[in-house]
Amino acid sequence: MNVVQRRSFAQTPLSQKHAAIFIEIAERLSGNRITPDQVDFLTLRVRRRMRVYRDESFEGYIRRVQDDQVEEHALMESLVTHTTDFFREPGHFKWLRNGGLNGLTDGKPASCLNVWSAACSLGSELWSTAIEIAQFQEDAGVPYCANLVGTDISKTILARARAAIFSAEEISGLPIQYRSKYLQRNSIENQRFRIASPLLESASFVAHNLLTPPLFSTLQFDLSLLRNVLLYFNKDDQQRVFNHVLSRLRPGGILMIGHTEVLSIETIGTRRVGPAIFIKE
Predict the structure, then answer these.
(1) Which of 206, 97, 193 has its CA nearest to residue 148?
(2) In this structure, is residue 84 part of a structural domain?
(3) Selection from 50, 116, 37, 56 nearest residue 78 by Cα
(4) Which of 142, 226, 258, 270 sits in a 20 to 30 Å window from 234, CA-based?
């Protein structure tokens, strides 16, 4: 294909027929729902995979995906949104800071909390929670203690989460006063930063599809984060995911979801104690 043809293909819109095929793959493998109004996002992610093989037509790439389960899974991972920031939706962290953590530990700051970030992406919200716990315990004069678990459907993104290395842009949401305490410079030239000890050693990351039965059959969590992921599922799957995560929460434990997701699910077995914050009864 010559330069003119390549330029022509780059301007070719994704047809409804082809979009439907890619949307079906994402929903079948992950449960994530991509809506027709996300065609620009869909086109961007599909083209990114096509460039790996220098495929020049949607038809050709679809044939590749249909014949290659490895590439089908790689496409699915690329279509699962990985939006994450430190201290995103700060109201949740303010709630933890202003009495939430004290309640979770029953007034005993030395307690070691179990925390699950159920769709952890790069791990930013899990590390943000760890920082709040570390600050809470430091203020109480006790050493840091927490057991952090992050799960995600994407093995590629989990590898980055385990590395716990972030660019200067990716830590932009982290308050300045926390950076010297909880980050160590990984590369001066490239402005890369890594989560510091002991937070780093307190976390583990595991591949998990939230539509399947929960992991950790013997582990109950004090705090579970299911934030800004339910909106990618249809209504029935939203309820299933919510119930799965709730089942691994101890009575009296706290579940946080995205602020826009509260009205889409039945929160039976919980009581609301804050904005998109629920306690398991």
Answers:
(1) 206
(2) no
(3) 50
(4) 270
pTM for this prediction: 0.81
Does 27 map to a domain? yes
> What does the pLDDT profile of the chain (281 residues) look like in tens digits?
444 444 444 567 888 899 888 888 888 877 777 777 778 888 888 888 888 888 888 989 999 989 998 888 888 877 776 667 899 999 999 999 999 999 999 999 999 999 999 999 999 999 999 999 999 999 999 999 999 999 998 888 999 999 999 998 899 999 999 999 999 987 655 689 999 999 999 999 999 999 998 887 788 999 999 998 887 788 888 899 999 999 999 999 999 998 877 666 788 899 999 989 999 99
Buried b (16+ CB within 10 A) or exposed e, 206-232: eebebeeebeeeeeebbbbbbbbbbeb
Q: Does 34 share its domain with 166? A: no
**Which residues neighbour 70 within 8 Å (Cβ) at sequence distance 6 or greater?**
none
User: By residue range, what is the domain housing residue 37?
Assistant: 3-79
123 and 95, same domain (yes or no): yes
Distance CA 150, CA 158 (A): 8
Q: How far is CA 87 from the centre of its chain?
A: 13
Q: What's the CA gap between 45 and 139, in Å, rounded?
A: 45
**Chain centroid, CA 114 distance in Å:** 17
